[in-house]
Amino acid sequence: MLLSFENLTLTLRGREILRGVSGQFEPGKVTVILGANGAGKSSLLSCLVGLREPQSGSVTLDDRPLLSLDNRERGRAIGLLPQRPDIHWNVDVKTIVGLGRLPHSGRWGMSAADHEAVVKAMAATDCTDLADRKAMRLSGGEQGRVLLARVLAGEPQWLLADEPLASLDPAHQFDVLERLKSYAIAGNGVIVVLHDLTQAARFADNIIVLKEGAILASGPREEVMTAAIMGQAYGVEVQIGISDRGNPWWFRFGVCDNLGANRNGHRDE
Q: In what residue span(s) does the ABC transporter domain sit (predicted)?
């Protein structure tokens, strides 16, 4: 199932957030969306999941307009881990994770297949031991794993995550990205908004770089994550180094105004 977007234009509060952007995502791949604050990363993700309707353009799933699908069908196809997700119900963890099955559940409640999917998702995110604990009493890292389990329980063909590493320590960041990579390897599509260039370079198959609402570059990681493109996107000089294990490391130094960074003070939309 291909997820595509064409000529998306989105204006919020009188400001053009997305400017005629187009692209296509492949299942079985991790695509990372990069860009400075205010570049339009979260807004693009919101359009891709159907939370925001663009002023023009379209999002399609296998040539079917996303907004023509009913909520249940859309929920089975696409799962979203939003930016700064919060848990507002002091219920046990297995109940929170079970909410991910709502697009699949029948009128009589959860089936055996639903319960099996919840158990599988909790095991995949190392949440099994948390099943009976109250979700609001968990640490931030534990809550992050629980909310990822909720998305995985829905078994979506596409998993979209908006800055899933925020507030996580390095060990948990690596763990979350490994789980997302595994989900893609299993044949699903994964789209992630990240700020950490080193993590993007390690885990992404494809990269989309946004700058001021337009696509600056798009393609395989090796072709897009160059010092020149990253410097233009973020307005800093970038030096790329390789560790002794062959992993790419990214360093930045010296703000360069002539690179055209987004310095308008807008928060990420």
A: 3-237
DSSP code for 134: B
- The total of other beta-carbon atoms located within 10 Å of residue 251's CB is 12
Number of H helices, E strands in the chain: 9, 12
Close Cβ partners of 131 (under 8 Å, ≥ 6 residues apart):
92, 93, 94, 122
Give the separation between CA 202 and CA 198, rounded to whole angstroms: 6
How many angstroms separate the CA atoms of 65 and 150, rounded?
Answer: 26
**Domain 3-259 CATH superfamily:** P-loop containing nucleotide triphosphate hydrolases (3.40.50.300)
pLDDT tens for 210-232 read 999 999 999 999 999 998 999 89
Token couple for 13: 């509060």
Helix (H, G, I), strand (E, B) or coil at 53: coil
Q: What are the residue ranges spanned by the domains of the chain?
A: 3-259
Task: Report the alpha-carbon distance of residue 70 to residue 5 in Å, rounded.
Answer: 18
Residue type, 95: T
26-51 per-position pLDDT tens digit? 899 999 999 999 999 999 999 999 99
Q: Within 4-111, where are the H helices?
A: 41-49, 71-77, 93-98
- Token pair listed for 65: 């307009």
Tens of pLDDT, residue by residue over 128-187, are 999 999 988 888 778 888 999 999 999 999 999 999 887 677 887 888 899 899 999 999
Question: Rounded CA gap, 152 and 124, in Å?
Answer: 9
Residue in 108, 89, 233 with CA at minimum distance from that of residue 147: 89
